[in-house]
Amino acid sequence: MKKSGSSESKSPSQLIDARIDELGGWRGEMLGRLRTLVREADPEVVEEWKWRGVPVWSHDGLICTGETYKNVVKMTFAKGAALDDPAGLFNASLEGNTRRAIDFHEGQRIDEKALKALIRAAVTLNRSKPRKAGRNPRPAATAAKPTQLQRDDKGVVLLSGGNPQIAKGDGDAPVQAYIAAMPGWKSDLGKRLDALIVRNVPNVRKAVKWNSPFYGIDGKGWFLGLHCFSKYVKVAFFRGASLRPLPPGASKDKDTRYFDIYEGDALDEAQLGSWVKQAAAFPGFLAPRP
Hints:
CATH architecture of the largest domain: Alpha-Beta Complex
Shape: globular
Distance between the termini: 24 Å
CATH class of the largest domain: Alpha Beta
Low-confidence stretches: 1-5, 131-149
Strand content: 15-25%
Number of strands: 13
Helix content: 25-40%
CATH topology of the largest domain: Aspartate Aminotransferase, domain 1
Mean pLDDT: 85
Order of helices and strands: HHEEEEEHEEEHHEEEEEH
């Protein structure tokens, strides 16, 4: 397997390039081919790098991921259960109500025409999806929806969902640059969350990694991360499964739990502060220093 260089300051697309190069062999070739088909099916697709190293393709919402395991390369479609699959491509995660996946094995032929049709259908579904039933209406955004490579009034690149593209770095300064670039109401929320974290963990260490602020303790790793999406800000607790009560959002990673904050939400600072204190007490997620 080839060794990649540092991931510091790389874009999501560059990180995916590096992953394909690292894998090598049939898995690298398979992931590279699947990525090409996604781009051909949707030239406007946005590439992202999430969940500690998973290639993600989005267009008005998540389309699919490209996960690699020892014996398979897996494409997981976020809303696959709602898609027509006349070619019968889906062969994994068939028991759920939302996701569907395709496991590709070594030497397997790709039905490229059917796969591209499935990708386009996922994009169409994303663009036509109604608001989820039972969720309270949220105030309409006052600014145009950010898109990949859109820039804010300070010249900061806004990626998918309006997430600021800030150079990786250690310390408070890059985190404050990220917060200042968060679009609209999210910037005030970012300031509030940052102050709450510092208040509850005075010795907190800060950094920006993978276009997200990270909070941690020296010698113990990172316990919390923030990330902007189109309609909400996600607070990720990397050892959230150990918190009580559990943060509401589940993750594919068994240890991580999420808390999503929408515009107009009443923020329970006492509960959030309790989660922050608990999270800081556990061993965190270890990642290289910038």
